[in-house]
Amino acid sequence: MTARLPTISVAETLAGKIVALRPDALPAPTIGKCEDLLIDIVGLCVTARNEDYIRSALAGYDDDGRCTAIGHQRTLNAAGAAFVNGTAAHGEDFDDTFEGGPVHAGAVIVPAVLAACERHHADGRMALAGIAVGTEVLCRLSLVVPKAVHKAGFHPTAVFGAMGAAAGVGAALGLNARQIVDALGIAGSMAGGIIEYLAEGAWTKRLHAGWAAQSGIRAALLARGGFVGPRTVFEGVHGLFHGFAHTTEGDYDALVGDFGTRWVTDTLAFKSYPCGTMAQPYIDCARRLATRGIKPEDIAEIVCEVAEGTVHRLWEPLTDKQRPRNGYAAKFAVPYLLATGFVHGSVGLEAFSESAIRDPRVLALAAKVKFAIDPDNPYPNSYTGHIRATLNDGRVLEERQPHLRGGAQEPLTRQDLIDKFALNAEHGGWSKVKRDVALKLIAGLYQGKIDLSSLRG
Question: Of 252, 11, 220, 31, nearest to 117 (Cα)?
């Protein structure tokens, strides 16, 4: 066994590239994307702050300290703040997506790095470096064996999030290469996250981002304290990919090959609707179909071409996706989401209340929605949508969405994200004055000390 160990492991190669990065040398597009992440994640933390799952998360963490749980007066220790903020940021499924993964980086990395920097007095310059590094690691890990982690029954954001957070916090706190290797090795034993929440719309997916965020902090601090982790955490015969993807064969060059010279972070997508990412192009198709003067009652059947890799999460069991059990299950039910977009003209945060998911016009249309697997669908490299509607009079109408709005081919602007922040913060009960103060803080956060006190309450 020892003879087959590599002289230089994947984690060692990655750590060497991380410590060689200079925060002041980050490319402008990457800095801009990290600024966008701050705006989006803070707004998402605020929009969820009064939700029952966040009240439960706060009640379950008795680790008080001096770090900020965004939108709350109570302060927590760094791990607790990272957990609550990560859970809130991911809770409404309105956070960013890396299309190649799919993974959600911001809800893991931003809470982890901000909490670590707030607790350990790292400045904004180091926070920027940590968020850039953590996001890049998380996204690139999802490219090593695409789709395999989901297929094995795990949530890639949860699994790769712990690793990305460990790298990001390690960079923000100035760990050396050996310590970052140990942090990654330690985080491998903290990674996890099954996707059984899909069965009945349980809350556990919401905590995956928060758990990964706090795990990254703990792994980095243990490594800084001298705790040793396996340097072959990625490619080892009992490593991360063996455990969560059932293989050690992967494209590790996608992780380390041009790390630090090409930034996949620049392609992050920001969502237009608070629901599953792959459902969003189908909502766009439904909204366009509705503008053609078609009424729900005119439709006999809708068939959607879909990627095989999305079926088990978004389309089956079909009857459950046509009539979701609760508001959270509805976020991962394309027939319901498509019908909501058609009937109401959009899908907003209000679409997941108990009354909304029982809307008879929406449910009647959702019951007519079916799917067919398209073997040529480009998922996960890009997310597309398709609707073929057969009307009662025999006409057949089709709509296609060739890419994810908000992604690399049609990105949201900075103003779009500020508008989204305002809507989310207002939904969470923040006044305009409070929102303006937060935006001012966010705009200068990477240039000064980390003081998040104005984001409390």
Answer: 220
> 36 versus 198: which is more confidently predicted?
36
Burial of 321 (0-12, 13-18, 19+ CB in 10 A): buried
Q: Going by C-beta distance under 8 Å and a sequence separation of 6 or more, which residues neighbour residue 435?
A: 421, 422, 425, 426
Does the global pTM surpass 0.85? yes
pLDDT at 101: 83
Q: What angle do CA 388, 292, 344 make, to 5 degrees?
A: 85
Judge if the upstream peptide bond of residue 324 is cis by omega within 30 degrees of 0. Answer: no
Q: Are 434 and 425 in contact (CB under 8 A)?
A: yes
Enter the tokens of residue 374: 């398209």
Q: Which residue has the tokens 């809350």?
A: 203
Residue 375 confidence class, pLDDT cut points 50, 70, 90: very high
pLDDT confidence of residue 1: 44
Integer Rg of the chain from CA: 22
Residue with tokens 């003081």: 451
Mean of pLDDT over the chain:
96
- Rounded mean pLDDT, 359-367: 98
Task: Look at the block and give the residue holding tokens 């969470």.
Answer: 428
By 3-state DSSP, what share of the chain in percent is helix, strand and coil, each rounded to 5?
55, 10, 35
* Beta strands 385-391 and 299-306, pairing class: antiparallel
Q: What residue type is 351 in one-letter code?
A: A
CA–CA distance, 282 with 105 (Å, rounded to integer): 23
Quick one: which of 36, 32, 33, 42 has its CA closest to 438? 42
Contacts of 419 (CB under 8 A, 6+ apart): none
Rounded to an integer, the average pLDDT of 251-279 is 96
Who's near 376: CB < 8 A, 6+ residues apart? none
The pair of three-digit structure tokens given for residue 64, joined into one six-digit string: 């008080």
Burial class (CB in 10 A: 0-12, 13-18, 19+), 132: buried
The token duo for 200 is: 């009945």
